[in-house]
């Protein structure tokens, strides 16, 4: 979720009438990131790896056929381009998820610390929830690590 969307949802404000509901939504968004990685690593990593390989093979075949039919075109290997995209775009974005999660949690912590100082009746509970999520992430250092070792990706 982009910063603008985060702000549009009011997740960085504690003094709105429904701020507790909003922080619950924000924490749900943050938790979803961890759950996606857990599901990916435990259930779909092999499927994604096989799919990437199949798509790459088809793109390589297509490139070869185009170059046979129209040799002047000299189309570069689209299979390699696909795997470069997986490495430089998809993998790079996945590597930034943990810092995004921590930045969001730190921001929520700061907002709700202000709320606690201002006497918000639910601030202590919200801060405790944020702290619990941070502890869970800290206890499992591989939360945001994705098993990409089976991807046939060129490394830089």
Automatic annotation (TrEMBL):
It comes from the Eukaryota. This is Uncharacterized protein. The lineage of its organism: Eukaryota, Fungi, Dikarya, Ascomycota, Pezizomycotina.
């Amino acid at each position: 979720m982009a910063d603008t969307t985060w702000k549009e949802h009011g997740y960085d404000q504690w003094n709105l009438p429904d701020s507790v509901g909003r922080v619950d939504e924000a924490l749900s968004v943050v938790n979803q990131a961890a759950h996606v990685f857990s599901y990916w690593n435990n259930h779909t990593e092999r499927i994604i790896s096989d799919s990437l390989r199949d798509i790459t093979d088809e793109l390589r075949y297509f490139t070869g056929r185009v170059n046979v039919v129209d040799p002047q075109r000299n189309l570069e290997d689209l299979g390699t381009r696909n795997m470069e995209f997986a490495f430089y775009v998809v993998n790079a974005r996945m590597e930034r998820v943990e810092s995004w999660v921590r930045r969001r949690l730190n921001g929520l912590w700061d907002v709700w610390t202000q709320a606690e100082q201002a006497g918000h009746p639910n601030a202590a509970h919200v801060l405790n929830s944020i702290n619990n999520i941070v502890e869970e992430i800290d206890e499992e250092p591989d939360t945001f690590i994705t098993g990409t070792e089976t991807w046939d990706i060129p490394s830089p």
